[in-house]
Amino acid sequence: MHARHLLVSSGFLLVAALCVVGLLPSPGWPRSKSFPSWLPPPINRREHDDSTDGHPCDYSDGRWVRDDAADVTTYTEDCRFLDPGFRCTRNGRSDSSFRHWRWQPHRCVLPKFNATDMLERSRNGRIVFVGDSIGRNQWESMVCMLAAAVPSAASASARVYEQSGKPISRHRGYLAMVFADYNLSVEYYRAPMIVMVDRFRPANDATTSSGGVRGAVRLDVMPRHADRWAGANVLVLNTGHWWNHHKTVKAGKYFMVGNRLNRTMNIKEAFRLSLQTVKDWELSSARCSKSYFFFRSYSPSHYSNGTWDIGGSCAGQRDPLTTNVHFFGEEYSWMNAMIAKMTDGIRSHGRKARFLNITHMTELRPDGHPSGHREPGTPPGAPEDCSHWCLPGVPDVWNQVLYAHLLSTGYDKRMKER
């Protein structure tokens, strides 16, 4: 009787243990506690690369590690392709600590960026960045990272140059940097909303004076230069900072689908429709069928004690955060969820599409912004810049993660087959 009771109890404990194990997350899933509550875990586990221990590697989940090695940054502020507003040390920042942090994923090693290798893999190709001015930040970072591998000599300007001779300054159209030795162009197209934005002329539009309509975000129409994006070997899109009430409805810009102007549509629905337009465009274009398509997640700003226009500041920040202090919070978590779902949908059709998730690592870097060290000529008392990034700086790591994803998907093999 005693033995049978012991056997039954043991059996019950075994079943219970198996049930508990069944409820535990798979070893291949990232530890949920390492993700902020507002950031959904990766939607498609297949998009992550394998680490050395055989588990999926999520480059977005990690910590910043101090590294004073001289080669942490592959270029300096002397890079001639940098916007003056991103050269923080030249603009008066007294410390360079923001340059000496590397990103360490929790479960794997992030490959070091090899500019010569990236240039060779991209030979006879095009790398295209599309988005707002923070996308421009990332584009300038990539250009300078690649240019650091081009021998500096008297002929350097002939080796790397803007295709149409445009000056390298803040630009409202597009820029294309040519790496002549590799027959490669690295391009930037300004598209803050990622879809078409029409501006109405007050003198010619009757609704402007009566209803305050100054423009329309056309949610079902791609920008005019979208045909230039198609055919890129690597296409990196971003948006987000213009999708708010202040820069749309409050500025007199409403949403339009077809010929119908909608003054009541909310931001979230408008954003969803714009992403659907991008998805439809990508899937319908034969020229995009072999592209490596990336849509970068939201890059958090770090204004405290007010917003950008009412005295918000990030001055005095010198080190990354080590805990999830919510500068970013939940305000734009829905954007990342929609972007991830869209890229997953494109990938389900056999395309090489990825959600380039940099939000968490970027939220931890309030020290990386220009703050008050803005470009020469900025009026005294102008708002601090706690949205863009000092270069060299945080966007270099975004490009390092981009490079790691390309390595994992045989980017060089596809280029060689062409």
UniProtKB/TrEMBL annotation:
One of its GO terms (molecular function) is xylan O-acetyltransferase activity. InterPro entries: TBL, TBL_C, TBL_N. It comes from the Eukaryota. Residues 56-108 form the Trichome birefringence-like N-terminal domain. Residues 110-404 form the Trichome birefringence-like C-terminal domain. One of its GO terms (cellular component) is Golgi membrane. Residues 363-376 have a biased composition (Basic and acidic residues). Transmembrane segments: none annotated. Keywords: Golgi apparatus, Membrane, Signal, Signal-anchor, Transferase, Transmembrane, Transmembrane helix. Residues 363-382 are annotated as: Disordered. It is a single-pass type II membrane protein. Residues 1-17 form the signal peptide. It is found in: Golgi apparatus membrane. Belongs to the PC-esterase family. TBL subfamily. This is Trichome birefringence-like N-terminal domain-containing protein. The lineage of its organism: Eukaryota, Viridiplantae, Streptophyta, Embryophyta, Tracheophyta.
